[in-house]
Amino acid sequence: MNIDKKTKILLGLTLVVGILLGALFFGGDSKEEEQKTEVTSKVEVWTCSMHPQIRQPEPGDCPICGMDLISLESGDDSIDPDAISMSESAMIIAGISTYKVGNTDGVKEIALNGKIEVNEKTVYSQSSHIPGRIEKIQVSFVGEYVKKGQVVAYVYSPDLASAQQELIEAYSVKDIQPQLLESVKTKLKNWKVSDATINSIISSGKTQDKFPIYADVSGYIIKKNVELGDYIQKGQTLYDVADLSTVWVLFEIYESDLSWVKKGDKVNYTVASFPGKTFSGAITFIDPFINPMTRIAKARVEVSNSGLKFKPEMFVSGTLKTKIVGNKATLSVPKSAVMWTGKRSIVYIKNETDKGISFKLREVTLGPLLGNDYIIEEGLEVGEEIVANGTFNVDAAAQLAGKPSMMNLEGGKVKTGHNHGDATMVMSEDKKVVLKEDKTTISAEAKKSLQGLYKNYFEFKDALTKDDFNSAKKALLEFEKTLGKINMSIFKGESHKVWMNYQTELKKNTLHATHIKNINELRMSFEPISNVMIAMTKAFNPLNKSAYVQFCPMANNDKGANWLSKENKVVNPYFGASMLKCGEVKETVK
Asked: In which order are the strands placed within the sheet that holds 330-334?
């Protein structure tokens, strides 16, 4: 077949156009598909910052608490790689609020409690100058007023009776032995027998059976030491008396506040007996010693007590305002904004752009605590916005996303171990945390601080045994609240590291308490909390009596689960009424 030249050219052009169109359509789709594949590979797993067990291949809401899921891998290069992004809805659910850093006047207000006491400088012990038996007593009760020179008792004294007889005999030979008469008179005067009484004995020639005891000072009886018929020695105290024209107001100063209090500081205080009235006074004395049991020292304010309006043992409430040394403006942030352990303290800085909201960790240097605010010495500037509430939630999300966090300032993927200092929690194959149970000594103050936590835990357990959802959830919320109030600074040395591990695990398992909707979810929370409480009981031994580790083999999807009980009798919290007695006592912790 003969094809002319024109036809050949037309066929060639058609072929070229076809190739170009094929490249345009099919080549473009290939390129677009590659881009989609690349984007998809950048975001593979989505999880919940509060519930890291949740893993989904696409974004959405957490099926447990409803928070927005976050990606474990983010391809958004516009966000700081060290910052954790969070949507506004996630912030609301996690209870996150922020605060703008500003200057403070550096004034610390210290709340003081105390009571009115007797001025010890006006206390006097009335003693007897005559040995003998009390024949009559004029002081009847504590609180009675005595006046200087008043007769308070009459005493019969064999020694004084003998001395009177000696006086009469010495007087009869005064012309021969005048020194003897003077010697006997001196003896009687040492017993505070007056000249008038001595002259009366001489003139009458008769001895007296009873001699009076006169009050040396005026005041109110605060303690009575003798009764009618008692035998007393010379110098023995009959009663204690105090002048109440001035009294002391003794305020309790906690050890942590002592550095802020000094002599001369003004204290404003109120007394319950005088509602609406405020009194003031200056501190005149601070105890040089601290009570070893209460860790408290006393600060004294001396006040005039005209009309005896202030009664000893009245309770008072006071406030003392003191300023940080220096006039330099200082920054302060709410106490709830700071996460700290040992010397490390961190806050989370909020950054808001058109791309969204993110939070980034920053280390700060803390100054003294002023009420509910910390002074910031280094690390922040005026106007910066920080997380004020929900700091732990942000930190948990940062840990999960491999961002710098409290436990890992360098950042990096979440590991199966959780290291804090030298103490480590290891993740076993079934992803359960193995907590340290070795005996660890803690102070009496630290043991006391844990009692509320155990109380809430046992209430939580008891409510689950009764299938009482409302009471169980209330107990769990109280448990979470009590946990947040425990001061980690009272755990010293090795115990501090161990407590931080326990606290971290407990917080992680109580974060979503408010979102729990049924008793099955409560029982799921109870199991990991119980593991921590058991480990803590073995390590710290904070209870005053034995506790029992009990075990149900059918709980936790037949894997078994433990719980802690105050009673040796098994009452199952994992199944309640359906299998109330299922389980056994595995161990007794003393």
From this structure: 102-104, 330-334, 373-378, 365-370
Q: How many helices (H) and strands (E) does the chain have?
A: 12, 32
**Which residues pair with residue 271 across a beta bridge?**
316
Q: Which pair of structure tokens corresponds to residue 320?
A: 């003392």
Residue 216 clears pLDDT 80, i.e. is over it: yes
Two structure tokens written together for 585: 């006592």
What residues have CB less than 8 Å from 406, skipping those under 6 apart?
339, 341, 344, 346, 361, 395, 399
Kindly write down the DSSP assignment for every residue of 476-523, as one continuous string.
HHHHHHHHHH--GGGS-THHHHHHHHHHHHHHHHHTTGGG--SHHHHH
Q: Which helix (H) or strand (E) segment is 562 a member of? A: strand 561-565
pLDDT grade for 582, boundaries at 50, 70 and 90: confident
DSSP classification of residue 264: T
Is pLDDT at 537 greater than 70 in this prediction?
yes
Asked whether residue 423 carries a pLDDT value surpassing 50, the answer given is no
What number of other Cβ atoms are within 10 A of residue 270's Cβ?
Answer: 16
Q: Read off the tokens for 248.
A: 């002391």
Q: Which two tokens stand for residue 117?
A: 């006491």
From residue 241, how far is each of 121, 141, 237, 307, 338 by CA, in Å? Answer: 11, 12, 11, 18, 54
DSSP state letter for 65:
T
Residue 63 above 80 pLDDT?
no
Task: Give bridge partners of residue 155 from the DSSP assignment.
Answer: 134, 211
How far apart are alpha carbons 416 and 399 in whole angstroms?
Answer: 12
| pLDDT number for residue 342 | 59
Q: How far apart are CA 336 and CA 197, in angstroms?
A: 79
Note the pLDDT of residue 229.
87
Where does 19-171 show beta strands of DSSP type E? 46-47, 70-71, 84-85, 97-100, 102-104, 107-118, 123-127, 132-137, 145-146, 151-156
Average pLDDT over residues 143-158: 89
Do residues 323 and 105 touch, judged by C-beta distance below 8 A? yes
Average pLDDT over every residue of 338-356: 82
pLDDT at 130: 82
| Pairwise CA distance, residues 565 & 569, whole Å | 9
The residues near 86 (Cβ < 8 Å, ≥ 6 apart) are 49, 68, 70, 94, 96, 357, 358, 359, 394, 397
Mean pLDDT over 467-485 rounds to 92
Encoded tokens for 451? 């009692």
- Which whole-number Å values give the CA distances from 128 to 63, 212, 587, in the listed order? 86, 10, 66
Model confidence band, residue 103 (pLDDT cutoffs 50, 70, 90)? confident
Can you tell me the mean pLDDT for 68-75? 58
